[in-house]
Design goal:
about 180 residues, alpha+beta, five-stranded antiparallel β-sheet, about 35% strand
Length: about 180
């Protein structure tokens, strides 16, 4: 994909199952937008922050390696840190889980420093209908790999969305790499 980095198997099936099992027993918080006081129509998802999950230190180690690989191979951005916890997002058909077109750079002090967004697919593709991660690097819309454990890395300023889930539930893992402002 143009301007997007893909890793076919960033996480194994066992890794995805382990994260899914922990997420299944952890209460999710409603997803919201940076600077927004509460839920809104743009995003319907339950969020679980990795820092709230015991025994998941290994996940951040893996995410750092995957981001470094993508940055080295594709982007070459000036990255300095991971200032925010990774999150597991649950998009359920029961509430038409989705996240409309957006970029991950926002007005908040951390969100304005986001440079790369990594999304890992934690659900097998047959577990849900809808829920496509669409990316718009230009006029064309690209759809991310839905295979279990697949990883997509994109610049945080790039428009992307998760289409409504109409059947089942989609789990994904997201983290942002931070750095000085673009210039």
């Amino acid at each position: 994909m143009i301007g997007v980095h893909r890793i076919d198997a960033g996480f194994s099936a066992d890794d995805c199952a382990a994260l899914g099992a922990v997420a299944a027993i952890t209460p999710a918080r409603p997803g919201r937008l940076v600077g927004s006081p509460g839920p809104n129509a743009v995003r319907r998802a339950g969020l679980i922050w990795l820092t709230d999950l015991p025994g998941t230190d290994w996940v951040m180690d893996r995410l750092m390696v995957l981001v470094a690989q993508a940055n080295r191979d594709t982007f070459g951005f000036d990255l300095t840190d991971f200032s925010e916890s990774a999150q597991i997002a649950r998009y359920d058909a029961a509430d038409q889980g989705h996240f409309d077109w957006h970029s991950d750079i926002g007005d908040g002090p951390l969100a304005r420093r986001r440079k790369l967004t990594l999304v890992a697919q934690l659900s097998p593709p047959e577990a849900y209908v809808g829920g496509a991660l669409d990316i718009r690097p230009s006029g064309a819309i690209l759809t991310a790999d839905r295979r279990l454990g697949a990883v997509t890395v994109l610049p945080s300023y790039m428009l992307h969305r998760v289409t409504p889930v109409t059947t089942g539930s989609r789990l994904s893992l997201t983290v942002w790499a931070h750095g000085p402002g673009f210039r």
